[in-house]
UniProtKB/TrEMBL annotation:
SMART domains named in the record: FN3, IG, IGc2
Organism, scientific name: Strigops habroptila
GO cellular component, one term: M band
Biased composition (Polar residues): 412-421, 800-813
Record domain Fibronectin type-III: where: 619-714, 719-810, 818-915, 1016-1110
Protein name: Immunoglobulin like and fibronectin type III domain containing 1
Gene giving rise to this polypeptide: IGFN1
Length: 1225
């Protein structure tokens, strides 16, 4: 639920608020104060709600238990709740929060108190410094008191080994009584849970990772899928997200497994968390403050330092740490003369000083506090002479050598880095021309602003004189431009190129002339080039490119050849002197090559930049395979993660959990080259879960978990199907069989074959070791065969006997099949094939063809190789895996009970393989990077591409596999995404990825926003907060839940049948103040919600709004008496004070002015008179002058001045208004 006052957070405790009741809200929230030491601070707040809410005050650091220091009361006259803090000191500087609570919800807001220290004598400062040195550790925040019911729920789900610790922490001394009560409570809880839940198991208590993520969960099978699952902290209900795992509190559901996640854990997140289904508690766990990793108030920041100078890295922690470790790349740094390490006495400020930096000090520096880390780059600026230009980031400049062109045309003599253009020749003439800078084939010279430029031409005869022109005007030597003649060479030299020097230059001598043009390019600071911008995932990235050049300059940012546009995370800003790219909450997909294109009338300049985003790796690719399972050991296997987070995987951590126990045990860690693991820490007939995590320099990935694995005794394979007789000859019988369906506890290593004479009971082994061949049979006998599979556990059950078969000569062979046609198919360069088609041979009743066999040999090999293991029943066959540009021989034979028939041969020659074409997405104007789809419509996106061989096409949504309702169709060089009926949850970033077998990869991402025409706003309320104005507030439209670009428009009319006129547009809050009111008139107001698709229905006021006309005053004539001259010049009694407010709020500036006669008051902003500006409201009540800024915006920031004048003189006071962004908007 959203408040009408910016900066107020409302939490609703119930799903539906009864009619006539409401959750608490603030009518006026407390404002931040800046006061001097010794003063009293007063915070005031006005609240509303039915029933009337209770109000309490807290502060972020420390308590408010001292009644002599903190006084809270309610002023019934002004209807205000007041907090007064007496005799302010520096320790009172903090963030104070105000809570309004009733039975239906809670409203909260905060206000800051800043203390300006006055004059303190030297002794007092010395004592304060001494106390800081003695304070080694800040006191831990006091845990919130828990009620007894919460403690018993915590004990109910805790491990038995933690009973004693919990009892000591919460003062339970009767241990036996506790156990007895737990038994009774467990029975009652199971009966309550049985009405809603089929089963519940595998509780996982809270664990906090190094990157500040806390997770806990359970496995739960609900009887009703629509049952509501709630998450509470210290008895207060929390809101959690299910589709976004990067929110503060979120739920990830995998089947019956519920995993709750708390991101960016802070000390205030410590407490008791409870999961409830409807009103029944099912799981409780506690987040200990000591398990929360140390956070950074001010992390390390990138820096550059000249060679031989000192570089200093500084960071500030949120909680003390005295044993942090510094690293350079992967090497641990020790305190030395080179590396000086210091820690402040309170353990919060850490500093690393690198003395006399050298190029080898370049690289990333990291501070590790044990549970968290921060890193930054150091760039050492190398010394360079005048002949070579380097960027400070280490990228080499392009240095050209002076040279001369041919006898005709232009020749460049670059002395600066070129911008990528090649030196060329101009039109033929009797002159030779040269220049300093960078030229192209059209005689264009591009020069960076501020650099020197030189145009020269060489005549073929001595004594030739000529004239220089610019844009048709004759030139002479002036300041900064020099015309020279050195023998045959005529030169025009510009010492320092400015915008006025751009244009077309011409040198003429008689009837012969030559031309060249100079373009002035925007200059770029080389410090921004070179080493890539590096960020961690989740951090904000800002890249600022300053430039100079002739205005106007158009700036564009490109990534993957697509121009970047503003969206929810990416913003591009541009001024006359710089352009800036801002990315909030950077992700891995943001990494890559960026290009900044600057363009003006003088030319185009492109700058290539690189952004590197590091993150922990993705989980290893699954599923986890069970290679072998026995009573003594289990072997598992996994695949490396698809994304290593930008840094190579260093190792894998393997953990195990016994089913039914809530304890993961670390089994070991293996290097990145090993993706299998065998453990003997198992018990027979016990089931386990295994999970694997990947580790890189940035942290540990989420876990890949296996299915339930049981450590059972080794199992032998099952029985194969009865063998089939393939062929029989005088001394050899060929049989075949299928592998058994059950392979046992390990893979099959071979088969044992047995034979017996028909009519006997004794089976004799054909082979003593597993094999697939058998010989040495007696002619004329009839045999039966059976087969048994063999694995590591032993020999499995034998199959049923085969059909009996005679060993005899093949007397009735089939006529060889005659191929009716041959078709050669080229698949790709490494996968060519030949398809054969033949006719069935002529047969009679005595000869029945059982199948066919195909054999093949290459032109340089005389041995035939069988292509099929089993007889082919069809009359067509495709031979694959052939090499291009080779000649092959193939033959086909028919088979029956007597053996193979005669072969029919054919020769085939394969052509050259098609060239390899790396995958490339053909993105043009028809492919949009941002789509707005109306809910219920179809999402259909076609992405054309080219590649050979066909690539693997993968689609992702927000980095995850597509939902089930999405359909992908890829054929004929086009891949299509199709979603039949779009829903709001289909909004997000979609990515298509192409990859071939050589590892070449191409990706493209676009955003889809599913929206709809917004719903109408809620009821309108009108209030007169400032005299002669009306403040219009309304309940937000329900569409704000799914529409991020929603805004409001306010309209008014002055009579019941008048025309509606817009008085406010593009309003992103639920509040608008209208000032142009005329007393005595009736006003009606209307509010509509708008987005990209249209306008909602209106919400209107029913009763008119009217400001009563002031009553006329009686006029009288006063008698003037001559008296003493009391005239006094204006003077400032109380000056203006600087203000800092948030966007959308109201700002009140006031001062006190004296003088006689009463001076005229005039307000100015940045020297602009505000008297006739309706957006500002000015008052003067008996010398107290006030200026009210309604709904402040960023443009209201600046210097304000109040001026008082009368006949005796003038006085003024100035103050600065600072506007800060509001994160709640």
């Amino acid at each position: 639920m959203k408040s009408s006052v910016p900066g107020v957070l409302i939490t609703q405790f119930v799903d539906e608020v009864p009619e006539g009741c409401s959750t608490p809200d603030f009518e006026r929230k407390p404002v931040s104060l800046t006061l001097e030491e010794g003063k009293n601070a007063i915070f005031r707040a006005m609240v509303k709600g039915v029933p009337t809410p209770d109000v309490k005050w807290t502060r972020a650091q420390g308590g408010m238990d001292d009644p002599a220091k903190y006084e809270t009361f309610f002023n019934s006259v002004t209807n205000e709740f007041v907090l007064q803090i007496k005799k302010l000191t520096a320790k009172d500087s903090d963030l104070y929060r105000c809570f309004a609570v009733n039975e239906y919800g809670e409203a909260s807001c905060s206000a800051g108190l800043r203390i300006i220290q006055g004059r303190i004598d030297k002794l007092r400062r010395t004592l304060e410094d001494s106390r800081k040195r003695l304070r080694k550790r800040a006191p831990a925040p006091k845990p919130k008191p828990l009620d007894k019911e919460a403690v018993w729920q915590l004990l109910l789900h805790a491990d038995k080994r933690d009973y004693e610790k919990i009892c000591m922490k919460y003062g339970i001394v009767d241990f036996r009584g506790m156990l007895k009560k737990l038994q009774e409570l467990r029975k009652d809880t199971e009966s309550e849970q049985g009405e809603l839940i089929h089963s519940i198991k595998n509780f996982r208590h809270i664990k906090v990772t190094r990157d500040g993520k806390a997770t806990f969960g359970l496995e739960m099978d609900l009887k009703n899928r629509n049952s509501k699952v709630y998450l509470l902290k210290d008895g207060e209900r929390l809101r959690y997200e299910t589709s976004n795992e990067y929110g503060k509190h979120c739920l990830r559901r995998i089947g019956k497994r519920y995993i709750f996640i708390v991101n960016d854990v802070q000390p205030e997140d410590a407490g008791l968390y409870q999961v409830r289904v409807e009103d029944v508690p099912v799981f409780s766990t506690e987040l200990d403050p000591d398990s929360i990793p140390v956070g950074f108030e001010q992390p390390l920041s990138n820096m550059s330092c000249p060679e031989d100078k000192d570089a200093i890295f500084t960071c500030i922690l949120r909680t003390p740490c005295h044993d942090a470790v510094w690293l350079h790349k992967t090497h641990v740094l020790e305190a030395s003369e080179k590396h000086q390490i210091s820690v402040s006495p309170d353990g919060l400020t850490h500093q690393l000083t690198i003395k006399n930096t050298v190029p080898s000090d370049n690289g990333m520096y990291t501070i590790n506090t044990g549970l968290s880390s921060s890193n930054a780059w150091l760039i050492v600026e190398c010394k360079c002479d005048g002949k070579e230009l380097r960027s400070v980031h280490g990228k080499e400049g392009v240095v050209g050598a002076d040279g001369r062109g041919g006898e005709y045309g232009l020749d460049s003599q670059p002395s600066k880095p070129s911008t990528g253009r090649e030196t060329g020749k101009g039109t033929a003439s009797d002159f030779r021309s040269g220049n300093k800078g960078s030229s192209d084939d059209r005689g264009l010279l591009s020069v960076l602003k501020g650099e020197p430029a030189e145009l020269s031409c060489t005549v073929s005869k001595d004594g030739v004189t000529g004239t220089w022109f610019k844009d048709g005007l004759k030139l002479t030597s002036t300041e900064g431009v020099c015309l020279k003649k050195e023998g045959l060479v005529h030169k025009l030299i510009i010492d320092k190129v400015e915008d006025i020097h751009a244009g077309k230059y011409r040198f003429e001598s008689g009837d012969i002339k030559t031309e060249a043009s100079i373009f002035v390019e925007a200059s770029i600071n080389p410090e921004i080039l070179g080493v890539p911008t590096v960020a961690k995932a989740g951090q904000n990235v800002t890249i600022k490119i300053p430039f100079e050049g002739r205005l106007p300059i158009r700036a564009a940012w490109l990534k993957d050849k697509m121009e970047l546009a503003d969206d929810t995370r990416i913003r591009v800003d541009k001024t006359d002197t710089f352009t800036k790219l801002s990315i909030s909450s950077s992700e891995r997909k943001d990494a890559g090559d960026y290009k900044v294109r600057l363009k003006n009338d003088s030319g185009v300049l492109e700058i290539n930049l690189k952004l590197v985003v590091f993150d922990k790796p993705q989980p290893p690719a699954g599923p986890i395979k069970i290679v072998e399972s026995s009573a003594n050991d289990i072997t598992i296997q996994w695949k490396p993660p698809k994304d290593d987070g930008g840094k190579p995987v260093q190792s894998y951590i393997i953990e195990r959990e016994q089913v039914g126990k809530n304890e993961w045990v670390t089994l070991g860690e293996v290097p990145r080259s090993c993706t299998t693991f065998t453990t003997n820490k198992v018990e027979q007939d016990t089931s386990y879960y295994f999970r694997v995590r990947a580790v890189n320099a940035e942290g540990t990935s989420d876990a890949l978990e296996s299915e339930e694995v049981k450590a059972a005794s080794k199992a032998t394979p099952g029985a194969p199907d009865p063998p089939e007789i393939v062929s029989a000859s005088r001394d050899t019988i060929t049989i075949s069989w299928k592998a058994p369906q059950k392979s046992g506890s390990s893979r099959i290593v071979g088969y044992l074959v047995q034979k017996r004479k028909k009519g006997t009971m004794t089976w004799l082994p054909v082979n003593s070791v597993p094999t697939l061949e058998m010989t040495n049979l007696k002619k004329g006998l009839q045999y039966e065969f059976r087969v048994a599979a063999v694995n590591a556990a032993g020999t499995g059950d034998a199959s049923e006997p085969s059909q009996p078969v005679f060993t005899r000569d093949s007397t009735s062979k089939c006529t060889a099949p005659r191929p009716s046609g041959l078709e050669l198919v080229h698949l790709n360069v490494d996968c060519s094939s030949i398809t054969l088609t033949w006719k069935r041979p002529a047969t009679n009743d005595e000869i029945d063809v059982k199948g066919y066999e195909v054999e093949m040999r290459s032109s340089n090999n005389l041995n035939w190789t069988k292509c099929n293991a089993l007889p082919i029943e069809m009359t067509t066959y495709t031979v694959k895996g052939l090499r291009a540009k080779q000649i092959y021989f193939l033959r086909v034979r028919a088979l029956n009970d007597s053996g193979p028939g005669e072969a029919a041969e054919i020769e085939a020659s394969l052509g050259a393989a098609p060239p390899v074409v790396p995958p490339r997405l053909l993105i043009d104007d028809t492919v949009k990077s941002f789509l707005v789809i109306k809910a219920g419509n179809t999402i259909r996106v076609n992405i054309p591409f080219e590649a050979s061989p066909d690539p693997v096409v993968t689609w992702l949504k927000d980095g995850h596999p597509l939902p089930n309702q999405a359909t992908i169709n890829t054929k004929d060089g086009t891949t299509q995404l199709l979603i039949g009926a779009a829903e709001f949850t289909d909004s997000g970033t979609y990515t298509v990825e192409l990859q071939n077998g050589l590892g070449k990869r191409e990706t493209f991402s676009f955003q889809v926003q599913v929206t709809d025409i917004p719903q109408s706003p809620g009821p309108i309320q009108l209030q007169e907060n400032v005299p002669n104005t009306v403040t219009v507030t309304w309940e937000p439209s329900a569409s704000e839940k799914w529409e991020s670009n929603l805004y409001y428009t306010v309209l008014k009319r002055e009579s019941q049948k008048g025309l509606w006129r817009v008085v406010g547009d593009l309003i992103y809050t639920n509040k608008f103040t209208f000032t142009s009111l005329i007393p005595g008139r009736d006003y009606y107001f209307r509010v509509v919600a708008k987005n990209n698709l249209g306008t909602s229905g209106p919400s209107e006021t029913v009763q008119p709004w009217r400001i009563q006309k002031p009553k006329g005053k009686s006029a009288f004539t006063s008698v003037c008496y001559k008296g003493v001259n009391q005239n006094q010049p204006p003077r400032i009694l109380v000056p203006l004070k600087p203000h800092v407010v948030t966007t959308g709020s109201e700002c009140h500036m006031s001062c006190a002015i004296g003088g006689h006669p009463p001076p005229k008051i005039t307000w100015y902003k940045d020297s602009r008179d505000l008297s006739n500006d309706p957006t500002y409201f000015c008052t003067n009540d008996f010398g107290v002058c006030s200026l009210v800024v309604l709904g402040v915006m960023k443009q209201d920031e600046g210097e304000y001045m109040v001026e008082a004048t009368n006949g005796s003189g003038r006085a003024f006071s100035k103050a600065f208004l600072t506007i800060k962004g509001n994160n709640n908007l």
